[in-house]
């Protein structure tokens, strides 16, 4: 494994291997070895982050490497230096890069022009590190996804939904997206996905009925702040106690965080499921260490 740019590019075998490695790394924390010893990893962030930044900084250090955090305002990228030039400079100095930005193409270009291992830490198109942590959490809490129904309630075509839809395609679990029609995955995407186990509905109750996993995320992703018309369309798509009443018994609720209480999720639901949701946040560290270790090995 040289890069982690998308879930789309991973095979079922690679996903399972990463999750098994993450479980081992989690159990062995402090005794997991130093595969990044002597390496410096750049962390280029053009969007805000709490979990991703902290989990990568800690994870790189725990694997023996040195993280170098570079917000866009610290480097010339923020003043318009092209990503392909940034990539060619950093590729000659550091051993790997973690990038959070807007366009997926920027991460693809960085990987190509730098020649160094590159990890997508969230773009507008995918959030692969988060989905690995989410799948790890589902394995821990429910023992896996075979025969399970996973519901998504909220934005139907965000980085999170797209990565989850690819995960469903690769792993074969039932995945039902409930979203307003205007924010549904476009037909071209669903054709490309070609996954009969992924369905889209306008009815959140239908998606959540008998679901084992109920998943949501912010209605307005980073970069969409102030889109009042978009936000207004999501009123009926809140994860609340009444929606969850028909979920399968023993269901779990996931939220990648940050959460906006009273919008996509109620305070009551978030707090009732905080044990799972903050375990999910912690799993970012273990999942990403598995990714870093797999890259270091190859
Ligand atoms: N879930 C997630 O990626 O959180 P941050 O934006 O805080 O990194
Ligand atoms: N869809 C959200 C995820 C945040 C972790 C966003 O892009 O802002």
From TrEMBL:
One of its GO terms (cellular component) is cytoplasm. The keyword Signal does not apply. It is an enzyme of class 2 (transferase). It is found in: Cytoplasm. Residues 146-294 form the Aspartate/ornithine carbamoyltransferase Asp/Orn-binding domain. SUPFAM superfamilies: Aspartate/ornithine carbamoyltransferase. Its main location: cytoplasm. This is Ornithine carbamoyltransferase. It comes from Haloferula luteola.
